Amino acid sequence: MNPMECQGRGAAGKVSRAAEIRAKRDKIKLGLALCLGATVVTGLVSSKTSRRLHVAAGAALVGLSAWHHLLYTPKKKQSP
Questions:
Q1: What Rg do the C-alpha atoms of the chain give, in angstroms?
Q2: Helix intervals (H) in 7-77
Q3: What average pLDDT does the chain have?
Q4: Which domain holds residue 45?
Q5: Transmembrane segments in this chain: where (predicted)?
Q6: Residue 59 lies in a domain
Q7: Per the domain annotation, does 40 fall within a domain?
Q8: What pTM did the predictor assign?
Q9: Residue 79 and residue 32: Cα distance in Å, rounded?
Q10: What is the C-alpha separation between 23 and 30, in angstroms, rounded?
Q11: Is the Cβ–Cβ distance between 35 and 61 less than 8 Å?
């Protein structure tokens, strides 16, 4: 097997669409984990600053969750 194909690259060396989506999914999952951790930590600390950070981290978590959902939703086929 060609080593380029193992990395999601075709014969021309270009990154395939599936590999690109897989990389985006991995980045989104990392962002979700970081936002969840920040939400938990700021939820345990009681100060005005941590309360604001808690709300911001929660909003980021909701936004990343929506983006994550869109990456896993298959595109609808267009009829001719």
A1: 18
A2: 17-44, 48-72
A3: 84
A4: 23-72
A5: 30-47, 53-72
A6: yes
A7: yes
A8: 0.70
A9: 35
A10: 11
A11: yes
Whole-angstrom CA distances from 46 to 17, 34, 39, 57 are 45, 20, 12, 15
Which of 61, 51, 57 has its CA nearest to residue 38? 57
| DSSP-assigned beta bridge partners for residue 9 | 15
Q: In angstroms, rounded to a whole number, what is the distance separating the alpha carbons of residues 8 and 14?
A: 8
Residue-wise pLDDT for 27-66, tens only, equals 999 999 999 999 999 999 999 999 999 999 999 999 999 9
**Backbone phi, psi, residue 41, to 5°:** -65, -45
Contact (Cβ atoms closer than 8 angstroms) between residue 25 and residue 68? yes
The reply to whether 14 falls in a domain is no
State residue 30's pLDDT score: 95
Amino acid at residue number 70: L
Tally of domains in the chain:
1
For residue 49, is it within any domain?
yes
